[in-house]
Amino acid sequence: MLNKMILPILIGIMAALYIFIIPAEPLPLKIAFKLIPMALIMFYAFRQLPSRPAPAMRLIIIGLFFCMLGDAFIAVQFVAGLGAFLVGHVFYLTGFIKMSRMNKTRLAALLPIGLYSFIIGRQLITALQTEGNDGLVIPVVAYMLVISLMALTAILTGNLWATAGSILFVISDSILSWNMFVSALPYSDVLIMTTYYSAQFLIAGSLASLGNSVSHEEGKRLNM
User: Is 205 within 8 Å of 221 (Cβ atoms)?
Assistant: First the structure.
């Protein structure tokens, strides 16, 4: 039991070190320490995989990798970082949709997710246009659409870890976008990164139970 907790504890320590201790300058040092928790989360994700992982589970791993690239890129160029995260979310939602088990209750999540995205998106678009950042409107709208679909597909899996992780990811990016384009939020850096690392850890951790679900479904099909 203790051995299983060592890696999550290490992830938490390195995340806290980055969030609370590492200074903003020099930037290369800041970026390096920002990536360490994500590298550890990727290693944690690999350890959750079953001996014969489904292709959909590999897509989640690839999504984690592109998000790690986004962490590096966004520190120096916002649009490049946004693009890397966008690709990461496409891999996430593709993996989740392949493992989804739809029912009416889960599909009902489309309404609150759509309403939330519309409200936040309208505020962001207005702020971008007001500040003369019209060139960012389409990338930001595309990103919001994809991350909203990612959250919906995570919910459709019925997996609590994936659901919680995707919702935290939406919250993290909402805080980031609001703080950048609408108005400054107190403790925004702490809120953004704590929800972000938690989201990625939960998505990585979901692979264990998602793997069990996939194996169970495959076993049922083989027995038919």
Answer: no
